[in-house]
């Protein structure tokens, strides 16, 4: 009985992870598909400076 309960919990956990990863993936596709290239470039550039990566 305990094993069956553990299996059900594992399946629910996997389903939650699947839904989360799917939503994150669709979000990344939407953002990268809809955003202007300059906006993406500026965001990456600002992140590089925030990480103190030598840039220019
Ligand atoms: Zn820079």
TrEMBL record:
InterPro entries: CbtB_put. It comes from Shimia thalassica. It comes from the Bacteria. This is Cobalt transporter subunit CbtB (Proposed).
